[in-house]
Every structure is written in C-alpha cells, then in structure tokens.
Amino acid sequence: MRRRNKKLWMLSLMMLFFLSGCLLPHENSETLEMYNADGDRVGTARLNETDGGVSVNVEVEGLSPGFHAIHVHEYGKCEGPDFSSSGNHFNPDGKDHGLMQTDGPHVGDLPNIEADADGAVQEELIINEATLKKGKNSLTADNGTSLIIHDGVDDGMSQPAGNSGDRIVCGVISGDSQSGEEQDAPTDPTENNDKQKNEENG
Ligand SMILES: [Cu+2]
Ligand SMILES: [Zn+2]
After folding, report:
1. Which of 16, 91, 138, 147 is spaced 20 to 30 Å from 28 by Cα?
2. Per-residue pLDDT tens for 72-93?
3. For the purposes of burial, counting CB atoms within 10 Å of the CB of 19, is it exposed (0-12), middle (13-18) or buried (19 or more)?
C-alpha cells in the first residue's frame, strides 16, 4: 500500500517536471542562433520573459570592435546577405524611430552594444514593451520577428532606423522551443540553409 502511494507520488512528480519542461519554458524563454551574412553561426541571443519586458543576453563574436546598433525587426526571416527579409523595426504602436526621439521609440529599438577589441560582445538588454507570450507586442506571433545587429551605430534620432548601416548579423525569434534546447550543439550553416530552402519549397 505504502509502496504504491510512493509510486503514484513519483509519477505525479514526473508529470509535473514533464509539464513544466514542455509547456512553461517555451513561452518564457528562447535561445536564438545568430548568423552573419555568410551564413556562419556567430553566437546566440538568449531571450527571457521578465516582469519588465523581454531580456536579451547577446553573446556574439566576429564583429568589428566598437558600438553596433541592435534592433528587433518585424519579420522572422533571416535571409543573407543583406537580411532585408527581416523588414523594418518591430513597431506595433506606429511610433517614430529612436530612443532619444520624443515620438518614439519603436518597441524593437535598443541601446547600442559594444564589441571588445576582439570583436566579441556579451551584453544583457531589455526590450521593455515586448512579450514572448500572446498579445499585440508579442515577438513570437505571426511567424515571429528577428534580432538584427548592424555594422554601424544607431544615432537614436534619424528616421526610419537611426542611420545604423548594413545588417550584418541576424537571428530568428520564432517562439519555437527547439532552438532553445539545441543551444549548445554547434550547427552547420549549410544544414540550416538546406532547412530554409526546404521550408520555402514546402
Ligand atoms: Cu535594425
Ligand atoms: Zn526603430
């Protein structure tokens, strides 16, 4: 009798782990694979839902030393080499661009990140008005959005995009938990290209 209760208890505990492992983190976090214009994987961006918006932990290398613009763009598509497939900045409220703009900013506008002398960045940013859950400001709804790093610096004022220069690194925010679970496995960029091709054909 006792043993059976213990078994049941273990089973419900396992159920709880299963549910929390499969349902909750998917809406609360996602790890993006970041790719450069050549299709090489250059790092990750870890997104977490917080009370004050979505936090982004960017770990990317291969940039030029110094400041770079970074934004959330409106479409979840990273097609190199120019990444124009990602569209304009994520701007569900129809505001102007720029953190220093009185009629701004876009929800997707973020402070510049700074690469060190080796071209590496490790910074944590907050997308204040955004969510990974459902809603108007959801980064994952309607086929997702994308996180873009630029060659230049966002001046915080100029329309429509802060005069930030070329788009050089891109990662898709899909709401798909798979990318989060595979975060530690190095990916072959050609494999990813094949996958994208297949998705387009399908
Ligand atoms: Cu941008
Ligand atoms: Zn903007």
Report:
1. 91
2. 999 999 999 999 999 999 999 9
3. exposed
